[in-house]
Structures are given as structure tokens and as C-alpha cells.
Design a protein that fits this description.
Helix content of chain B: 10-25%
Shape of chain A: elongated
Oligomer: heterodimer
Distance between the termini of chain A: 89 Å
Number of strands of chain B: 7
Helix content of chain A: under 10%
Radius of gyration of chain A: 53 Å
Largest sheet of chain B: 5 strands, mixed, barrel
Strand order of the largest sheet of chain B: 1-2-3-5-4
Structural class of chain A: mainly beta
Strand content of chain A: over 45%
Number of helices of chain A: 2
Distance between the termini of chain B: 34 Å
Strand order of the largest sheet of chain A: 45-44-43-42-50-49-48-47-46
Number of helices of chain B: 4
Radius of gyration of chain B: 16 Å
Shape of chain B: globular
């Protein structure tokens, strides 16, 4: 717009200035009303004024006419400029198509600015006439169209063509300017889609470029449909126009090309039986486009009598193709003749397809798990599998798998047998897969030992002895050797009172002909009233298993060494029953509970790898009753040089006796003696303070060279003590801060305070500056909390040669508190990731064990897989000890776990103490991840008060709150209940 | 007396303060404020230095309530009122059978407050002509035992069962 105005301004200026110039040169600028021309005059158009062309709406250069008379300028001659009154034309200033003026002295007549109208066209003439002059001057002018502002599809849209064929008409697009004048010479590009249904413009592919004609129309080259079926849009675009013209074209499917067998070939069926799959064929055109709505006919072609029929009994069957070009037959069944033949699939105008069919003679066989042994009540390792195959004489001599065949697995209904997991019965069914394999669900042996067969039936065949299975007695799964057990808990004396007890011992599993049997053993037991050391009558002892997979060891004691009778102080009439849940990833270790009516306790079972005793330091911990029957926790380090205690250095102990701390005590003497074939030996310890701590003699059972289970035996101390000792090996005497600085320890503590039993679990991180951080959870039913951040606390450890405890591995934690509870603890570390602990408070009394926490990232997947669980606690109403052991499986992704357990519960009822041994109870739990491997969650099914009334299980068990302190990223952990429903402290261990 | 004999062996643990404060007659002061302290800290200690003696009768057995010390509770009535006495979980069948309404009781223990309620934590109980120990000298619950058990056991004499010595 500015350009146009500028141009008009120049022209106006020239209109004003040029007459003056011409006048100066002898012309005249006067207007109309001039003199009449004389004879010999002519009028001519100035050469610069004609011809001219401009865009519609634009100004032409000034129109100048010159009048001469005999070659001389004729001034003051009236001249009339006249433009066409319609069509392509223009107007002078004022909007008129005529303009009158006079020549100047130079004979020049100048019209005002002449502007093209909005009609493109021309050339047209503007005349300049003067009276008396017969021939006018003519200005030849043309109005050109303006820039393109639109393009529209004017022809060719909406066409259809078969794939690969030419469309009838070309595509035409019209380009117009802003005044709807057709724009000629414009470059138009036609573009079809690159993919899918499309079209091409000959050799130029899916694009073509053409130029508009004078009518503004661009005509595409011939258009040919592509090979893909469907509707699509071809665009026509011109430069400067945003919206292209759109042409909708459709490629239609071509004629039928071929029928294809898409499913059901080849197939094999037992003679007389239906084939597993119906026949399915597809119909497509030559380019593979599916053809719908067409008929496909399936026709059996018998060979030597082998054939079959479709549903209804016909040998032919027709079906109509769907939108995908697929047609499906009815069920086809083999006739009674074995052999190979075909079924053809035909459709008019298309090539046919052939299905390969085979009527076969079947074979049924057991292919996996055929000969297996499992421990009673345990799942067999390999699921039972049958395979069904078929042959068809000479045309099919090699067996082929038969899918879709239902196979029935049947185990004996009584005696030694088992049950399948999906039916919980001795029978199940499975359907063969593409490999001809029928896979039964997991099969679990029942509780009866013995060998038996599981039969197969299917495809008209039976195999009565397909699988040879054996339910082995529990003991056969145990490796030959010694097993060390250690249990502590509450003993029902049977005289109306209960007392804590501790017990440790070892028994042997034989080999060869004695494999799986207990061949002997010995144990030490103390419940404050007794301190017994008995042999175990192997011949009378036995092993069995519970339904949850726990092992049950029934140990028959001798009365001392006299195996003609039993020790009535042990178990029930001298028969001790231990229930063990082995660690899933370490078959040499298990959690234990005493599982009889005499007591309830928890402990461990370990395969004994050595029976020798190594010299050096041992961190030890003891917990129980003192001489007077009052609670006592003791810990320390004893260092041995051969069989003599190093009493001058390296051996110290601490004790909390009825909440009176005895710190940093020393020994005056000590010895070790009597190592026997079960790894039993005796430690005699003489404290320097012989008044408060008369001579203590501990029976020990070596486990693996690193650990010894301890129980007080007959001595002068006359207490009730049990615990363990941890070998420090080469670390003996060399402990300093580097062993603990920056390390974290997960510690479980059990004991009591003024209101009763107290339990606690902590994650104690020992900082480089001597500070203690971490988390603590605790519960005594009156008050409970956790996990609660440790906000205060310090620790010390003496270096070698420093103080009485220098280098012993004794760590003193002082004032460890979360603001509500405060603990003073002694740790005694072995340098190999284990510790014993003793509380040194004056308001409670605790003892326990702990583990150095492993490194790595703790996440939900840390607690995942199979674990052995152990729990010990006290219920809130009957206030009897309960102990659980059993297998639990955690699902890290689901933040849940579930499992089963065997419970022993010593109930203090109004009419006296009663026990309840309840196997195979179920539990479930949840967990939420937390910082530093301290998780929180819940457990359902373990609250003895709400879940059990002795042998009955109540609905609506209390959901209890728990904290889980992970020891490592594999989920081994210590758990503690943190509500007021009951007290529970337990473990989850894989290894 | 068990405690007297015991103190001879455990001089470090049983000091003169306990002897001076023990055996006070509980007279009209069985109230929450008796012990003069709150015990909302976890594992608050039994106040062995301020033991009290109660002579009264069993009024009734009390049900356990959440947050109270776990175990058997009885309402003991004296001349000046009644108090919730905590006997713990380890009572013998014989003692439980003797806890009937109206039975005369002589109890030694200490006051203890938790969740705003006062309890009389019984350490030594005399009922039905028998005196038994329910708590250690510093207040930890222990399996019920006769007051002279330790001496008997040391000498292998008249305890509920004799130690077997070597066990062989």
C-alpha cells in the first residue's frame, strides 16, 4: 500500500511539474477550452505512454498526447482522453473514464493519473481526440491480475479407481487473485500421500508441478491409483497461499488374487477326534488387500479313505470373508482312517489354498518328573508333564505333538500320595500345548512316606505307571552329620509355675543305611531348678515334617547317660520336640521352636562343620536368671590360650544383675575342657568378684568354628543362663575404632522392665566423632514407639593396650536416646559382622545379638523371595510366651509377604498354665520402605490373642503394626511389633 | 527373710536406703500422687528406695486394660481406700486360687504411674498363709517363688525341686 501511494505521489508531482517543464520548452499547460485546430494537424500518443500494463488497481504512467500542425506543436488545442466504459479499463482522477485538457505551447496534452480498474484484461484502448483531427491517438493498456490469494479444486475430486488403475480425469485447480481474477502462470504443485493409500502422477511419482493457464487453471498429469486400498487426499498448493486445494480420491480393492490357508494347516488329530483348530483362509487381491464379503469353500480331499467331516457331517463347508478377508470353517473331525490328505479352500476368480490334514494314531507318555523323590509334605521339584504325539503310517512316520488334548493325572487316593496345587486333590487335568505337552500344576507329597505311581489318561489312552514318585521321610533330606540346637524360652514346670529355661545340644544324622535317622546326641538344659546333661537316645528319636515344610525333630533323652529311661525334666516325659524352619538359601541353618507341651521357646539349628575349639578371643553374651532367680544379662570377651583363660588381659565382662550394672569386671581364672564328638566342651569362669559371681560353668557346643552355643550347667553360680560365643579369630586383642567407626549395626534386644517383658530393635550407626545415630523401636505394652530416630548418644572403644578392655572389641554406648527412651548398651563384636549385646540400664534389663548392616541401596526389592521366619513374644491377655517358626515369601514389587508357621503358645489361664502347639497357621503382611533399611508395615494372623482360641482360628485377627530392620539388601531382617496388642520380636532370614 | 539374707550376698545392690524406706505401713495414702513422680518415660524404674506395705483384702480381680502393666491386677482394699495392684503374669496356680474376694493380703511394693494412672507394683505378696516373691529387689517381674527359695537351692535342700548336680 505504501509503495502504491508513493508511486501515485510521484505521478501527481509529475502531473504538476511536467507542464511547467514543457512550458519552459515552448509547450503549454493550459486546460480545456483551447483553440480549434487548423488543417494539417495530427494527434499522437507519446511513446512512453503506450503500450502499458499494470496490476489491477494500479496507476499507469501518465498518458501524454501531442498535437502538431504540419510538424509544429499546436498549443492550446482541446484534447479528450476516453477509456472503455466497461470491462477491463480504468478511471482518471475523479473516477471518470474521460478527461479533457488542452495542449500546452509544446503541443502536449497530459491526462490526469489513470488507474486500472479491478478487472484483469486487455489490452484495451484509451483514445485521445481533438476536434478536427479525425484520427485519435491510441494508448494500448492492459490490466494484469494481482498475486494469487486462493486455490481451489475445480475438477477431479471424488473419483474412485481400482488399485493400480488410472483415474478417469485429471485434477484441476484454479488460482485467483484478490479480485477473483484468474492468475495465469502460477506454479501449482499436486502432492499425493507418501504412505498408505495414494496415487502417482506418472514418472514424477506422487508429486507433479504445473503452471496455470490464462484462465488460472492448473491441470495435473494423469493420475494412477496406488496398490493400497483406501481414501486419501491429494493437495494442490501454490506459493503465497496457505490453504491448498484438496482432492479426495479412493483406491478400491482389486479383483481376487489368491486364497491363503492362514490357520489350521498342517494339523494332526487322533482318528475319530476333532482337530484342535478350525480351518481359516484369507482372500486377497493381487496386491494383498483383503477382500471382504466373498465366499470361500472348504472341501476335503480323501486319500485312501483318510478324511473327515465338518460340523453337520458334510465334507464341504462355505464361509464368508470378514472385513479382514478371513473365512473360518466349522469344526473338522477326523474319520476313523489314519492317513494324510488335504482340504482345499477355493473362491471364484482366485487361486485356491490347501490345508494339510493328518489323522493319526496317538501315543501318551510321561516326559518330565517321571521319577522323583520329595520329602513328605514338600512339593516335588519338577512338575509332572505328559506329552501326546501321533503318527500316520508311511505318510507321517515321525511322531508329531498333538495340542489341545486333555490329559488327566491321577495319584493314589490314599496312602502315600500327594495333591496338585490347582485342585488340592490327587487328580488334575491339563490340556496339551503346541508342543503336545500337558503340564500339571505343582504336586506336593502328603505326609505318608512311600513310593507310588501317578497315572495318565488322554487321547483314548491310559498309562497307569507313567510317573514313579516317592514320598521320602523328612530325615532323608538332611545331610549326614551333627546338628547343633539352641533354644531358650519359658518352661512349664508342671507344678503351677513357669520359669525361663535355656538348652543347647547336638544330635547326629546318620549316613548310608542310617541316612535320615537320628543316631545319637546330647544336650544340656537349665531352668534354674535343674541343670541337666543328658545323652539323646538316637534309636528312639525320629524326624517328621509338617504340612508347611517345617521339620519336626523328636528327641528322646536319656536320664544322664542311662538310656534305659528318660530325663523327666526335659520335654514331655523326657521327649523333646523341636520344630525347625530351614533357611531357603542355606540348608545348614534353621530357626527352631520347642514344639511340645512342656515349654515354649525359640532358637536356632545349625549343621556342625567342626567339633574343634580354636584359641583366641570370644565375644559372648548370656541372658537369664542369677543365683537368686532375678534377671541378669551378661556380656564380655574371654580370650583363651590353649585351655587357659588369659585373665590378666583380654578377658573382661559386664553384667546387669537385676538392673544393677557391674561394669568392666575381670576374671581371676578360667579353663576349657572336655571337648567330645558332638563338639561339646565346658568353660569354667571364675570372676574376680567371686561374691557376686561365683564360679560359672558353661556347656558349649561348637557350630562352625566361629560360633559356640552356651548354656549354664551344674556350677556354683546356680543361675539360669543361655547364650552364645563368637570367635574373634585374628582380630583378637586388636580391636580399635576403625572396626566400628562408620559402621551400622542392627541389634535385637529382649528383656524386661518394671511392667513386664520389654523388647527393642535398633539400627545403631557409630559415627567417626563418637556419636550414635540411627533408629530404635521398643515396646513393653505399656509404652511403645518406633521407628524413632536416635537423637542423642555416644560410644567408645578402647584401642589395643588401652584400659582393661583395650583391644577386646568391647564397645560402650551411652545415653542412646530418641527423647523418650534411653539405652546404655555394651556391644561385644567379633570383627566378622556379628555382636552380642547387653543393656546396662538401671530401669530395664536387656540382652541380645546383632549384625553389622551391609552396604547397598535398600528398596522394596530388598525384601523379596523366600525366608525362614522366627518370632517370640508375649500375648497381651494370657501373658504367656509364644514362639513361631515357618516359611514366608515376600513380594518386593507388591510390598507384601505371606506364609505359614507352627506356633507354640504357653498360656497362663485362670486355671493354670496350658500349652497349645498349632502347626500350619497362615499369616500375611505388608511393608513400606524406609530410610537406611528400616521398613514399617503390618502383619495379620500372628496375634495369638485375637487369631487363636487354642485349637480354633478366629476370624478378624488384629492387624498388628511392625517395624522391619534390614540387615542387608537381601532382606535378612529383625522385626518388632510396635503396638499394644502383643509383644513380638522376630527374624526373617534367607541365609 | 529372703531379702535380708540376700542383702548379705549382694552388698552392692541392696543399700541402707532400701532398708530404711522399706516396710512402711500404707495408711490412707494410696493415691496417684503417692509416689510423687510421673513415669511416662519408657521403662520407668521401679522405685525400690520407696517401697510401701499394704495390709488389706482382695476386693476383686481387675481386667487388664490397654496400656496398663501386663499381667494379673487385683483391687486391694485397705483402711483408707483401694488400689489397683499389679501382680504380673507369673503367678502360680496356688496363688491365683487364693485371690478371692475378701482374702486378707499383705503386700510390699512400690507405686508406679503410667498413662496417668497409678498402680501398686507388688514385689512380695502374702496370701493364704504363703509369702512369695513376684518381683526382684529392683522391681523386675520374676516367676513366682517362695521367699526362701535361693537359700534352699544353694544348699540343695527344700526348693520346689532339687538341682541335679552333674545331671548324670
Amino acid at each position: 500500500m505504501n509503495v502504491t501511494l508513493a508511486r501515485r505521489s510521484v505521478q501527481l508531482a509529475m502531473a504538476l511539474v511536467l507542464p511547467a517543464i514543457l512550458s519552459a520548452c515552448g509547450g503549454s499547460s493550459s486546460g480545456g477550452g483551447g483553440t480549434t485546430p487548423l488543417g494539417g494537424e495530427v494527434i499522437t500518443a507519446a511513446r512512453q505512454s503506450t503500450p502499458q500494463n499494470v496490476q489491477v488497481g494500479q496507476s499507469f504512467n501518465l498518458l501524454l498526447a501531442t498535437v502538431t500542425n504540419n510538424g509544429n506543436p499546436a498549443g492550446n488545442v482541446a484534447v479528450t482522453f476516453t477509456a472503455p466504459s466497461s470491462g477491463a479499463s480504468g478511471t482518471f482522477v475523479g473516477g471518470s473514464t474521460t478527461y479533457v485538457t488542452s495542449t500546452n505551447q509544446g503541443g502536449v496534452a497530459m491526462a490526469t493519473t489513470f488507474v486500472a480498474n479491478d478487472i484483469a484484461g486487455g489490452p484495451y484502448n484509451v483514445t485521445a481526440t481533438a476536434s478536427g483531427i479525425s484520427t485519435p491517438a491510441i494508448f494500448v493498456l492492459t490490466n494484469n491480475a494481482g498475486p494469487a490469494v486462493s486455490i481451489t479444486a475445480t475438477s477431479g475430486s471424488g473419483q474412485q479407481a481400482l488399485v493400480g488403475a488410472a483415474f478417469t480425469n485429471t485434477l484441476q485447480a484454479t488460482v485467483l487473485d484478490s479480485f477473483s481474477n484468474p492468475v495465469s502462470g502460477a506454479t501449482v504443485t499436486f502432492t499425493a500421500p507418501n504412505v498408505g493409500a495414494s496415487a502417482s502422477f506418472g514418472a514424477s511419482g506422487n508429486t507433479a508441478t504445473v503452471t496455470t493457464g490464462t484462465n488460472g487453471i492448473a491441470v495435473s498429469p494423469a493420475v494412477t491409483a496406488g496398490t493400497a486400498v483406501g481414501s486419501y487426499t491429494v493437495t494442490a498448493a501454490v506459493s503465497g497461499v496457505t490453504s491448498p486445494a484438496n482432492f479426495t480420491l479412493t483406491n478400491n480393492v482389486g479383483p481376487g488374487g489368491a486364497v491363503t490357508a492362514t490357520s489350521g494347516s498342517p494339523q494332526y488329530a487322533v482318528t475319530g477326534a476333532a482337530f484342535a483348530k478350525t480351518l481359516q483362509a484369507s482372500l486377497n487381491d493381487q496386491f494383498g488387500n483383503p477382500i471382504s464379503g466373498a465366499q470361500i469353500t472348504f472341501t476335503a480331499n480323501p486319500v485312501n479313505g483318510a478324511s473327515g467331516t465338518f460340523a453337520g457331517g458334510s465334507t464341504t463347508n462355505s464361509a464368508t470373508t470378514d472385513v479382514n478377508g478371513l473365512a473360518t470353517s466349522t469344526v473338522f473331525s477326523a474319520n476313523g482312517t489314519s492317513g494324510c490328505y488335504t482340504i482345499s479352500a477355493t473362491s471364484s476368480g482366485a487361486a485356491s489354498a490347501t490345508f494339510s490334514m493328518n489323522n493319526v494314531q496317538p501315543a501318551l507318555s510321561a516326559t518330565a518328573g517321571t521319577t522323583q523323590t520329595a520329602t513328605v509334605n514338600q512339593a516335588f521339584a519338577t512338575d509332572l508333564q505328559a506329552t501326546v504325539t501321533g503318527t500316520a503310517g508311511a505318510c507321517l512316520p515321525t511322531p508329531v505333538p498333538l495340542p489341545g488334548v486333555t490329559v488327566t493325572f491321577t495319584a493314589p487316593s490314599s496312602g502315600a500320595s500327594g495333591k496338585f496345587s490347582d485342585t488340592s486333590s490327587a487328580t488334575t487335568t491339563a490340556v496339551t500345548n503346541a508342543l503336545g505337552q500337558a503340564n500339571a500344576t505343582a504336586f506336593t507329597a502328603n505326609g505318608t512316606a512311600g513310593s507310588y505311581s501317578v497315572s495318565l489318561a488322554g487321547a483314548g489312552l491310559t498309562n497307569a505307571t507313567a510317573f514313579s514318585l516317592t514320598n521320602a521321610s523328612a530325615a532323608t533330606a538332611l545331610a549326614a552329620g551333627n546338628y547343633v540346637f539352641s533354644v531358650s524360652g519359658t518352661d512349664n514346670t508342671g507344678s503351677g509355675v513357669v520359669y525361663p529355661y535355656s538348652m543347647a545340644g547336638a544330635f547326629s544324622i546318620g549316613s548310608g543305611a542310617s541316612a535320615g535317622t537320628i543316631t545319637g546326641g546330647e544336650l544340656d538344659f537349665t531352668n534354674y531348678f535343674y541343670a541337666d546333661h543328658d545323652q539323646i537316645n538316637g534309636a528312639a528319636s525320629s524326624i517328621s515334617a509338617n504340612a508347611d515344610g517345617n521339620f519336626v525333630f523328636t528327641l528322646v533323652t536319656c536320664n544322664g547317660a542311662d538310656c534305659s529311661g528318660t530325663d523327666p525334666n526335659i520335654g514331655v516325659g523326657g521327649i523333646l520336640t523341636l520344630d525347625a524352619s530351614f533357611f531357603p538359601q542355606n540348608s545348614q541353618k534353621a530357626f527352631l521352636t520347642e514344639f511340645d507341651a512342656s515349654a515354649s521357646g525359640s532358637g536356632t539349628l545349625d549343621f556342625q562343620t567342626v567339633t574343634s575349639f580354636s584359641t583366641g578371643g570370644y565375644a559372648f553374651g548370656l541372658h537369664g536368671l542369677d543365683t537368686f532367680g532375678d534377671p541378669l544379662a551378661m556380656g564380655g570377651v574371654v580370650s583363651w590360650n590353649g585351655q587357659e583363660l588369659l585373665n590378666a588381659s583380654g578377658s573382661i565382662f559386664d553384667a546387669n544383675d537385676d538392673m544393677t550394672p557391674f561394669s568392666l569386671q575381670t576374671f581371676s581364672n578360667g579353663s576349657v575342657s572336655g571337648l567330645d564328638g558332638f563338639g561339646r566342651l565346658e568353660f569354667t569362669l571364675d570372676a574376680a568378684d567371686s561374691t557376686d559371681f561365683p564360679e560359672i560353668i558353661l556347656a558349649g557346643y561348637t557350630v562352625d568354628g566361629n560360633q559356640i552355643r552356651l548354656v549354664e550347667t551344674a556350677d556354683s553360680y546356680l543361675g539360669e543362663l543361655g547364650g552364645s560365643a563368637l570367635w574373634q579369630a585374628g582380630n583378637t586383642g586388636n580391636f580399635d575404632s576403625t572396626f566400628v567407626s562408620g559402621k551400622s549395626y542392627v541389634v535385637g534386644l529382649n528383656g524386661s522392665d518394671a511392667t513386664g517383658t520389654e523388647q527393642a530393635v535398633g539400627l545403631f550407626t557409630l559415627g567417626s566423632s563418637g556419636n550414635v545415630t540411627g533408629f530404635i523401636s521398643y515396646n513393653d505394652l505399656s509404652l511403645h514407639n518406633g521407628p524413632s530416630a536416635i537423637t542423642a548418644g555416644t560410644y567408645t572403644i578402647d584401642g589395643p593396650g588401652t584400659g582393661l578392655d583395650g583391644g577386646t572389641g568391647r564397645v560402650t554406648l551411652t545415653g542412646v536416646s530418641d527423647g523418650t527412651a534411653t539405652f546404655n548398651l555394651q556391644f561385644y563384636i567379633d570383627g566378622n559382622g556379628n555382636l552380642t549385646a547387653a543393656g546396662m540400664d538401671t530401669n530395664d534389663l536387656l540382652g541380645g545379638t546383632g549384625f553389622q548392616q551391609g552396604t547397598g541401596t535398600f528398596s522394596s526389592s530388598s525384601f523379596n523371595g523366600a525366608y525362614a521366619m522366627s518370632a517370640t513374644g508375649v500375648d497381651v491377655n494370657h501373658l504367656g510366651e509364644f514362639d513361631d517358626v515357618g516359611p514366608v515369601t515376600a513380594t518386593g514389587t507388591g510390598l507384601t509377604f505371606s506364609g505359614s508357621y507352627d506356633l507354640n503358645w504357653l498360656v497362663n489361664r485362670a486355671n493354670g498354665f496350658t500349652t497349645a502347639e498349632i502347626p500350619n497357621e497362615s499369616l500375611s503382611g505388608t511393608f513400606v520402605t524406609g530410610a537406611s533399611g528400616v521398613f514399617t508395615g503390618t502383619i495379620d494372623g500372628m496375634d495369638v490373642t485375637t487369631c487363636f482360641i487354642f485349637q480354633g482360628h478366629e476370624a478378624g485377627c488384629t492387624t498388628d503394626a511392625f517395624d522391619y530392620y534390614l540387615i542387608d539388601t537381601t532382606g535378612d531382617s529383625i522385626m518388632i511389633e510396635t503396638d499394644g496388642n502383643q509383644l513380638t520380636l522376630g527374624y526373617f532370614f534367607q541365609k | 527373710m529372703g531379702h535380708l539374707s540376700r542383702s548379705g550376698n549382694f552388698k552392692k545392690r541392696i543399700g541402707p536406703a532400701w532398708l530404711a524406706c522399706g516396710w512402711l505401713l500404707l495408711a490412707g495414702s494410696l493415691s496417684v500422687g503417692q509416689d510423687g513422680a510421673t513415669h511416662e518415660r519408657f521403662a520407668a524404674a521401679y522405685d525400690a528406695a520407696h517401697e510401701l506395705t499394704l495390709d488389706g483384702t482382695v476386693e476383686k480381680m481387675l481386667p487388664g486394660t490397654p496400656g496398663s502393666p501386663a499381667g494379673v491386677h487385683v483391687l486391694l482394699a485397705g483402711d483408707q481406700g483401694a488400689i489397683d495392684a499389679h501382680l504380673g503374669p507369673y503367678l502360680s496356680d496356688q496363688t491365683k486360687a487364693a485371690l478371692v474376694a475378701g482374702a486378707p493380703v499383705h503386700a510390699v511394693g512400690s507405686m508406679f504411674t503410667v498413662h496417668g494412672k497409678a498402680y501398686f507394683l507388688v514385689r512380695r505378696l502374702t496370701i493364704g498363709g504363703r509369702t512369695t516373691v513376684l518381683r526382684s529387689p529392683h522391681g523386675l517381674l520374676v516367676p513366682e517363688r517362695p521367699v526362701d527359695l535361693q537359700r534352699s537351692r544353694r544348699t540343695g535342700g527344700n526348693g520346689p525341686a532339687s538341682a541335679k548336680g552333674s545331671g548324670q
